[in-house]
Amino acid sequence: MSLLSVEGLTVQHPGARQAAVRDVSLAVERGEVLGLIGESGSGKSTLLKAWLGLIAPTSGVVRWGGEDLSTLSNLRDRRRLIQPVFQDPSAALDPRRSIAESLAEPFEIHRRPVTTAGLERLLADVQLPADCLPKLPRALSAGQRQRVAIARALALEPEVLLLDEPVSALDVSVQAQVLALLRQLRATRGLTLVLVSHDLHVVRALATKLAVMFAGRVVERGALASVSTSPLHPYTRSLFGGDVIPALDRPVGAEPGCAFRHRCPFATDACAVTPRLSEAPHAAACVMVK
Ligand SMILES: Nc1ncnc2c1ncn2[C@@H]1O[C@H](COP(=O)(O)OP(=O)(O)O)[C@@H](O)[C@H]1O
Ligand code: SF4
Ligand SMILES: [Mg+2]
């Protein structure tokens, strides 16, 4: 049984003309790092929020440990075990509260004892000095603030981190340090990660498997090595620097058919029927891929 999965997930934002996530099925096993890649607007954040239970799907099922999220009785426990980290740590850190207060909050919410030594240990886990504790977030660098946000997510010893563009707001050198930290935390804590990024380098640095999103759908998924050495879908191939794909010159409509066909050099009449992903370990939703 997969640790996390979604089946046939569709999410339409209120007022939106078309679904941001369309019929997505994905599974993550314990210890895996699923990299979710795709251009801006492809539905990555929406998928992650539905997985976290922060927004309700229009249809489909979200599962945590095989259980349907919408009928889960121990939701509070699950919330503890699955923690988000967002692009902007300011969202997780109140500017008026000290780092110590922000780190103590998850313990207080879950009525757990909190000690200064415990908070210092948390900071050490993300390679920050103990003298950060009395400081306000603005006294820290952006990279340090993101480390605090990660420490806060780790406070209650979760099994899974869902990370949405966790290093996108950071300088490239700082990005590398935070990615190295995440790699180390994954190894020492046996964490399972879902890592969303529009940046292939970021996903490649950590992922064990990849899912490529385009216009709300997963168009390819498979092991990192397999997808990066032999990408199957024309969109993935364009992402990986092979074929040149013209930029999107019109919005992707809700009409059936491959959403990529207006950009795809290989499009034929056969592409007017929406291609589906097979069950194969490495699969692509394209009429050219069997
Ligand atoms: N709260 C919202 N209300 C309406 N539309 C939204 C909302 N959030 C996202 N969208 C739309 O859904 C689509 C997918 O957005 P998003 O999930 O943020 O993509 P990504 O994270 O890949 O950039 C976009 O077209 C975006 O404009
Ligand atoms: S289904 Fe057709 S349009 Fe879509 S990626 Fe494949 S060849 Fe291109
Ligand atoms: Mg996003």
How does this model look, in words?
This protein has 290 residues and is α/β, with parallel strands linked by helices. It has one domain (4-284): Rossmann fold. The protein has nine helices and eleven strands. The chain has a seven-stranded mixed β-sheet, sandwiched between helices. The chain has a four-stranded antiparallel β-sheet with strand order 2-1-4-5. A hairpin with a 2-residue loop joins strand 4 and strand 5 (67-68). Helix 3 (99-109) runs parallel beside helix 5. The chain is globular, with a radius of gyration of 20 Å. The two termini are 27 Å apart. 40% of the residues are buried. The model has no long low-confidence stretch (mean pLDDT 91). The protein binds adenosine-5'-diphosphate, iron/sulfur cluster and magnesium ion. Residues 13, 16, 20, 38, 40-46 line the site of adenosine-5'-diphosphate.
The helix fraction, in percent, is 25-40%
Q: Give unreliable regions as ranges.
A: none
Inertia-based shape = globular
Q: Which ligands accompany this protein?
A: adenosine-5'-diphosphate, iron/sulfur cluster, magnesium ion
Whole-Å distance between the termini?
Answer: 27 Å
Strand order of the largest sheet: 6-7-8-3-9-10-11
For this structure, the CATH topology is Rossmann fold
Level-1 CATH class name: Alpha Beta
Strand/helix succession = EEEHEEHEHHHEHEHEEHHE
Q: β content, as a range?
A: 15-25%
In a nutshell, what does this entry contain?
With 290 residues, this protein is an alpha/beta fold.
Topology:
Elements: E1 4-11, E2 21-28, E3 33-37, H1 44-52, E4 59-64, E5 67-68, H2 75-81, E6 82-85, H3 99-109, H4 116-125, H5 142-154, E7 160-164, H6 172-189, E8 192-197, H7 200-206, E9 209-214, E10 217-223, H8 224-229, H9 234-239, E11 283-284
Parallel strand pairs: 3-8, 3-9, 6-7, 7-8
Antiparallel strand pairs: 1-2, 1-4, 4-5, 9-10, 10-11
Helix pairs in contact: 3-5
Bound molecules: adenosine-5'-diphosphate, iron/sulfur cluster and magnesium ion.
Magnesium ion is lined by residues 44-45, 164-165.
